[in-house]
## 1
Amino acid sequence: MALFCRAAYLLLKPSRPVAACISAAARQYSSGGQYDYIIVEKRGEKQNVGFIQLNRPKALNALCDGLMSEVGQALDDFEADGGVGAIVITGSDRAFAAGADIKEMQNRTFQECYGGNFLSHWNRVSTVKKPVIAAVNGFALGGGCELAMMCDIIYAGEKAQFGQPEILLGTIPGAGGTQRLTRAVGKSLAMEMVLTGDKINAQEAKQSGLVSKICPVDQLVLEAIKCGEKIASNSKLVSAMAKEAVNAAYELTLAEGNRLEKRLFHSTFATEDRKEGMSAFVEKRQASFKDK
Ligand code: CAA
């Protein structure tokens, strides 16, 4: 707690440059060293929501290698932290992220990309067991849209714009855009976006099922944290099972998916939290989950 008070103090202290303060605040949480491109904190009344803010404003949060490695490190830390039950990833009001870093990619060769399996470390976002919420204000383009889609829930600010403009750069989405966008919004809209590079706004994203909620720009992060708090108040163990089951809908046939769901449902009966949840209902009291 003292660390976070100090972080807040550093952020508010007027004589320090904001970026330096943010860096200091970010360093408070990390167990694994310093963060240069992201701010990492715990948020929520019970400090049970992990918060990652992409912080490369001059480049509109372009997702350079270093930034995505730091996101992976922060996710590892939150995954290992028993006090954290959900994670929020956000950017700035202007940009969630304007894509992979084009300047960093510009001179890469095929051999480097193929040999080094370029962008494969981004997958960490989609393998986290704890639920992850993307809070998207401004641009979510290319890799930025793909990063949001790797998360489990997307909330959008009223001015958000989503797009896969890689075609305009002579390439195609490389971090799941063609796959996750198609599953989220359907073939026709996904094709149109991927083939023209056109963006869609928050309302279109909501209508098409890409995002679940639209919020005023200045309320977006608060709303995402609130959602994270709700999730974190449930059993972390059972939340992970629920997440696994929903994600399986993207990978398995209906019969296979239903079978997996049934097995996971049965498995909840091996947990103390399932007993607690049902006992609390019958006894007309609030459940107190222990993640066991
Ligand atoms: N990579 C590197 N730098 C970027 C960037 C990116 N993806 N997007 C923006 N920037 C930089 C700009 O170069 C500029 O920096 P300088 O001031 O040093 O020139 C700064 O951010 C501000 O950008 P703009 O001046 O262009 O701002 P704008 O308001 O006029 O336009 C924008 C905003 C429409 C988002 C425009 O910046 C843009 O089109 N960005 C590129 C979007 C894009 O093509 N994304 C896909 C990248 S490829 C990819 O992501 C592959 C994948 O699948 C993983």
## 2
Amino acid sequence: MLEVAASIVAEVSKLRDEINHHNYLYHSLDSPELTDVEFDKLFRRLKSLEAEYPSAVTPDSPTQRVGAKPLEGFEQIRHELPMLSLDNAFNSNDLQDFDRRVIARLQDESQIEYACEPKIDGIAVSLLYEDGILVRGATRGDGTTGEDITHNVRTIESVPLKLMGTDYPGRLEVRGEIYIARSTFKSLNQQAEAEGEKPFANPRNAAAGSVRQLDARLTAKRKLTMFCYSVGLVERGELPLKHGEILQQLKLWGLRINPKLAIVQGAQACIDYYNRMQLDRDDLDYEIDGVVFKVNSIAQQTRLGILTRTPRWAIAHKFPAEEGVTELLDVEFQVGRTGAVTPVARLKPVKVGGVTISNATLHNMDEVGRLGVRIGDIVLLQRAGDVIPKIVGVEKKSENGKKILLPRKCPSCGSDVVQSQDEVIARCSGGLICQAQRQENIRHFASRLAMDIEGLGDKLVLQLVEAGLIKTAADLYDLSLTELVELERMAPKSANNLLAALEKSKDTTLPRFIYSLGIQEVGESTARSLAMHFGELEALLAADELSLQRVPDVGPIVAKKIARFFAQKSNQDVIEKMRRLGLHWPAIEVSAAADVLAGKIYVLTGTLNQMNRNDAKAKLQSLGAKVAGSVSKNTDCVVAGDAAGSKLVKAQELGILVMDEQALVDFLAEHNL
Ligand code: I6G
């Protein structure tokens, strides 16, 4: 009996190794050795053994890629090391400037070795391997916090569930780009059309939608793939000392890297690589929007360090925006959530970079004047990556072109449109009586980074507003099943799901709640600063402009907008209703924190690895410190990160307190920051 079990275990293990190996050859190296039929035979044998001996099933088995049960929602993941973004170069001069900056900072080098790769137009993600097993996949999110998409990442055949070999670090975070191949995208869209569904606009949108599916079975059908381009966290193990060699090592562990990786010397060779890639671009089975150059030596990368959120040792050289020419048929004015009235161009449909464009933004009336564009003109369009296309010029004037005029009344509610002296944007003065503003406001409230109300999409918001069921976001929490099922195309199951999602969203956080209110100029990061500073909503509501200005990142203009928002009775009523209907969040302990460093002057120098410099600055400021740019005898403390230079030396000469990054992290943690 025991012997049989041992032989089964051995067979199962051998089959898994074989399947993983052939998966790797097929999906990562693009050089299969088995026919599909031969591969399927191995796979079916493994499945049947696992069905017969369920105790032999392990989570890293290739049969276990797709979970059976959809998730209820996405968990937030805080990246242990922030996921940075890249600085951009838009031409050869920018690239040469970058190279000169690198040389100047390193002082001792005249020609730098660079690793070059295509920049995939996909979705940045992080994979975490513990003892070689994939334990987590997360989106980049805002670089600090992303979403847990492990269930979806597991379905991607080119992502190993278990690393090959044995010499990998105990904890290894691999970063890269998930995308959908052009060929796959084409067949997905053909299938969507055949089934009467709306096709995806482009491969990037299709990939983005697919990694954010709650049901991994749907993700698996989208046939995503991934190229790995760097590592994040590395613990209990060592990696090679050059970026290119690290990537080659990742490949040996079974991860997929871009075959176009090249190591070159100096800026001119980078420009040559860029030109080659621009020529090859259309022949690739994936979309790229430029190329990325990285200083190859990790020691040099460390010396160069990070500037806020972008490494000084890497740059993305973007391809120029794709352009097209078409006729401007009409201009309509759209009203946004803050009442901004924006001219939107309706165009004769035209293909730009493979995508059909029929709308483009004209930004504001100043831009319309600057371009001198009229309805009927032939215009020049630009489309860059995922950005909304814009009109950048007039190719040919129409003989009887019609002048574009800002409407005097809001196209949505008929209130006056006003243009104040101090901004170029015209606004509807209707406030919450304006249906368009209401709709946009509620859409923002429900959005992913705000209250994240699953299932409450744009169309449903429009339906609810049009049916008169909701006027403000607070009314969402008053909706009843009876009201919902009376809406067109609303089955009882969907209505119940929406009510459950609304219920779930009531349990939120103060930063999210503040962000969801849609106060002008208050994005996610300012909302977080406000929450950290005031700790509770009441204190924020009571704050005047001066006290608002004490919050990091809040200047006089933003403070005025925040104070004005909370002074409005209609906004107070909405907030009061939300709280009455059950929205709640834990208080944030600000303790006596706000004054702990009052009057102290801090200086940050060197590279911080556990947080970016802006975050460190904001946190010190929230404790009352002033953060200065240079060291003087008035400085109280210098926080010295890696490769700190002259400021550290000066601090030591002046006998000023110096703390390293870990001491800062510990100190902030003591104050709940
Ligand atoms: O967004 C990115 C695309 C490609 C990257 C990147 C990359 O390397 C080929 N590398 C880094 C380090 C970052 N973003 C931050």
